[in-house]
Design goal:
The strands form two sheets. The protein has a seven-stranded mixed sheet. It has a three-stranded antiparallel sheet with strand order 2-3-6, with no helix packed on it. It is rod-shaped. Helix 1 (3-23) packs antiparallel against helix 4 and helix 2 (30-55) runs antiparallel to helix 3 (60-83). The longest helix is centred in the middle third of the chain and has 55 residues, at 110-164. The protein is 50% helix and 17% strand. It is an alpha+beta fold. It is built from seven helices and ten strands.
Length: 317
Amino acid sequence: MNPVRVKFKAESSYLETLLSEYKNSYPKNFSEMVRTGLPLFMIVFSMMLGVNFFVNGSGDESVGFAMVGMVLFVFGIVLYAKFAKIIQKGDNAFVRKKIDTLQNDFKAYPDVKNYAAKCSDELTAAEKHKSKIKTVYYCVFGGFLLLFGCYILWGAAKGFSRFLDTDSGKAVHNRVDFNGYFVCLNLKEDVPLLSVKPLKNEISDGIKLEDGKLDVFLTDFYKEPDGSVCNLSAMKPAISGAENSDKFRLVLTYQDGKPVERCPKFYFDGAKGGIISTGAFCIDMVSKKQNRFQALQTLRYIQANSERLSFLVEKMN
């Protein structure tokens, strides 16, 4: 038998085997790409859910998502360990090299040249098919992760801007909490719990409030393992004639000047600008923790009766 024919038959058979293995290698179709890529997606997404928990609030919804993220992370690790072993990626560069070698070894034979061109076309078609599968997969799943990542960055940027801009009304806002006050009170982040006008503008000799209402927001005094202790925050009211060393107390009152029951007081100095906050309120003397039911009732009361309320600023020194 002609040794050239024997050699060609052996090399062409090997080439066809390589070409067939590449066509059937990962990713053969979109479903295989999803099946093998899902574990890594679950791991990345679960980590992003964790970051979102710290960046965009700690409310019931965020806590739920964080718990889901923990479950996704565990399952993602298990599935990744399973599918990582069975993924067989083809080496198209090696197949292409074998086609070029076949052409060079038998360049004197036109039929071999046509055969090699056919193999090259099949390889190109398989490469395009796999590339299309990857493109669709990354557009769908990668696009989702990108959008969610943008949402996290937006929340981080908003929080950072508030941290820098402490003299702006945008710096104080309702914070979503573990105890569900945010949901129970039907709050929105940038809409105050209540807005009240001053009972009187005159504070003491030469010191008075400038015109303007006080927007009061719900915030966290500090967090505990079983929940957070809420308090109230507002932007410091504008006061004329005050010294930085002056000490003031702000009280929510009825129209007759009587303080609102169980409502905490704001203490602050005479320096201009910044956020003022109350201490914790409705504290149970036995457990030394905030009585959540009583706190919620107090918050509901002042929210529902905001039109009947005012605020009074008193000089303490």
